[in-house]
Automatic annotation (TrEMBL):
GO terms for cellular component: membrane. Its main location: membrane. This is Amino acid permease/ SLC12A domain-containing protein. The chain crosses the membrane at residues 46-63, 75-93, 127-148, 154-173, 185-207, 227-252, 273-292, 312-332, 374-393, 399-424, 444-467, 479-496. The lineage of its organism: Eukaryota, Fungi, Dikarya, Ascomycota, Pezizomycotina. It is a multi-pass membrane protein. Residues 46-505 form the Amino acid permease/ SLC12A domain. Keywords: Amino-acid transport, Membrane, Transmembrane, Transmembrane helix, Transport. GO terms for molecular function: amino acid transmembrane transporter activity. It comes from Exophiala aquamarina CBS 119918. Residues 1-24 have a biased composition (Polar residues). InterPro entries: AA-permease/SLC12A_dom, APC_YAT. It is found in: Membrane. Coiled coil: none annotated.
Length: 547
């Protein structure tokens, strides 16, 4: 009885302490100052679909074709596996940080707090710029995919879909979440259907396919098909695509600030990333490599949204199935529109956060009473008007150079997230706080972040190599800067920011890191949820760990 009384008193004291912390603003609901407050309207199902299918688009469905032709099927699959490991570790680290600090402008906040305030130019600024540029590109891509069926004036579709994107913004973050939920389900069903079709086709089970059993015929080196094409440069070239295709996975961390219950929904969402990597990317590219000949000249035209060169569409054509190419082209159209929707969300929330922290014009931080960052949305839609340069013969060149400015931004962002996680854990330990107090701990721990940093550094080296020595070509200055211009820009921007602030200290000191602002969890709540988890059966704990 004495023990029970002591335990009850201890829990009572912890509850009181938690309430006291709340009054002292340690447990902050939202660090966004009034009136600029985003609304927490994203439910668990929205978060999970954003994590699983939010950014599946032309990068996978179309861009994989050129990588298959240049690097070969083995290079394509290995590239997605290696990049997938880096993304998996990154999302787990981001999940731990975002559950602990579900604040507006997650990436910017973490970088300033745990790395260096000057480094934000290579994370949030480049991240916002990347999404700003991507929107008009994706709008053009949607128009091109429709031209698969019939040639229309692409300007008509640019106007139609840009208006559609603007209309979705009227409904705020809830509109974004619902659109991504529906389109995400369509994309996942389509990928699952393709995988099933690919297995049947490989076994010779498609009646209209005269090739019979395929196995790994296209990996054997016969008939001009090779597992690895163009040697080492061909292998390196795959990582440019894989990084682009995985881009957007981190949106789930940005969305934490607008989630109804990030402590519950975010851990479930980041756990789903494993299945997205394994099923959507790795398995689908493996299937592509065994049913589509990698020496097909049509694959070399796979860029942008040229769906006539999509390896997914080509797989159905080669098998002689008439209806499925059009159906999958519709899926690619939907996927591209989904990515355009994500572009608007990613850029507007990042711009609003930068303004909130006085790193962008304050007017960009305006949020109306429905939780919409209106000025940032208007800026994004105005940039979207660049889609009308599709009328120009130089449109491709313009977008190539625009993307070169932010090209490596996604890799630098992933590396920054992992470094934030490592330094956060170091500060947490130095402060004498137990890891058991964290509301969500990355299953891969801090070692996962170290591993991801090594992989990302390797990918950066490989992309530098392929920019220097193009597959099947000779060194070319224009090609190099189109692919690696953002490298020197990153260093220059960091140096200029240091010079502007006259602050030449590198890195925030561990002992000076703020571990409390923006927290929504107390140690008591975390320990209580862990005790509840321990009370569950082994089978249930295993299922919860995976899903």
């Amino acid at each position: 009885m004495a023990t029970e009384s002591t335990t009850a008193e201890k829990q009572s004291q912890e509850v009181a302490s938690a309430q006291s912390s709340t009054r002292m603003n340690i447990d902050i609901e939202d660090s966004t100052p009034r009136p600029a407050k985003l609304r927490r309207d994203l439910q668990g199902r929205h978060m999970q679909m954003i994590a699983i299918g939010g950014s599946i688009g032309a990068g996978l469905f179309v861009g994989s074709g050129r990588s298959l032709a240049v690097g070969g099927p083995a290079s394509l699959t290995l590239g997605f596996i290696i990049t997938g490991f880096a993304v998996l570790c990154t999302t787990q680290a981001l999940g731990e940080l975002a559950v602990m600090y579900p604040v507006n402008g997650a990436f910017y906040s973490y970088v300033v707090r745990f790395i260096d305030p000057a480094w934000y130019v290579n994370t949030s600024c480049r991240y916002a710029l990347g999404w700003l540029i991507t929107l008009p590109f994706e709008i053009i891509s949607v128009g091109i995919t429709i031209n698969y069926w019939h040639e229309y004036n692409i300007g008509i579709w640019v106007a139609v879909f840009l208006t559609t994107i603007a209309f979705v913004q009227f409904f705020g973050v809830r509109g974004y979440g619902e659109i991504e939920f529906v389109l995400g389900i369509i994309k996942l069903v389509a990928v699952a259907g393709f995988i099933i079709f690919g297995i049947i086709a490989n076994c010779g089970g498609v009646p209209t396919d005269t090739r019979g059993y395929l196995g790994f015929r296209y990996w054997s080196g016969d008939d001009g098909n090779h597992a690895f094409r163009n040697g080492f440069p061909g292998f390196c070239s795959v990582f440019v695509l894989s990084a682009f295709a995985f881009g957007g996975t981190e949106l789930v961390g940005l969305a934490a600030a607008e989630a109804q219950d990030p402590q519950k929904s975010l851990p479930k969402a980041v756990k789903q990333v494993l299945w997205r990597i394994a099923g959507v990317y790795v398995l689908s590219t493996l299937i592509l490599g065994i049913i589509v000949p990698n020496n097909s000249p049509e694959l070399l035209g796979a860029s942008g949204a040229n769906t006539k060169a999509s390896p997914f569409v080509l797989a159905f054509k080669i098998a002689g199935v008439k209806a499925l190419p059009s159906i999958f082209n519709a899926v690619i159209t939907i996927s591209t529109l989904s990515v355009a929707n994500s572009c608007t969300y990613g850029s507007t929330r990042t711009l609003q956060a930068l303004a909130q922290y006085s790193m962008a014009p304050k007017i960009l931080g305006y949020v109306d009473n429905r939780g919409r960052p209106l000025v940032a949305i208007i800026i994004q839609l105005l940039v979207g008007l660049l889609a009308f340069i599709s009328y120009s013969a130089q449109a491709g060149t313009v977008f190539t150079w625009l993307f070169s400015i932010s090209g490596l931004g996604i890799l630098l962002l992933w590396a920054s997230i992992c470094l934030c996680h490592v330094r956060f854990r170091q500060a947490w330990k130095v402060a004498g706080r137990p890891v058991e107090d964290l509301p969500f701990r990355s299953p891969l721990g801090v070692y996962g972040s170290y591993f991801a940093l090594v992989l990302i550094a390797l990918i950066l080296v490989l992309t530098f190599y392929v920019a220097l020595i193009p597959p099947g070509g000779s060194p070319n200055a224009q090609y190099f800067f189109q692919n690696w211009l953002s490298g020197p820009i990153a260093l220059t921007a960091f140096g200029l920011r240091k010079a502007w602030t006259s602050d030449w200290r590198f890195g925030v000191k561990i002992k000076d890191m703020d571990l409390d602002t923006g927290r929504r969890d107390t140690g008591y709540t975390s320990r209580l949820s862990q005790e509840e988890e321990k009370g569950k059966s082994l089978g249930r704990r295993v299922i919860n760990a995976i899903f």
